[in-house]
Amino acid sequence: MKNRHDILISPMLTEKGTLLKEQDNKVLFKVAMGANKIEIKRAVEENLKVKVERVATIVCKGKIKRMGKHEGKRSDWKKAIVTLKKGEKLDFIEGV
What we know:
This protein is an alpha+beta fold.
């Protein structure tokens, strides 16, 4: 990845994400498929001005969907679970 703005696609505002944020100080992001953990860590630290302790990534496979006799597939996507250091917090979720 070349541009740090292309790595983070969007924060994931889900029930599981909210639970992880409250209990373990973790935040979920949808990220670019080609991004690795080091690039994700740098992008979060530079764009959101927080210190990152750890990054875990998951590749979610797209579902197969049928419309009558025709079959298609949704795109694969990548999710990152970012653990913030003690005392750090992100407030962009609180404003929603």
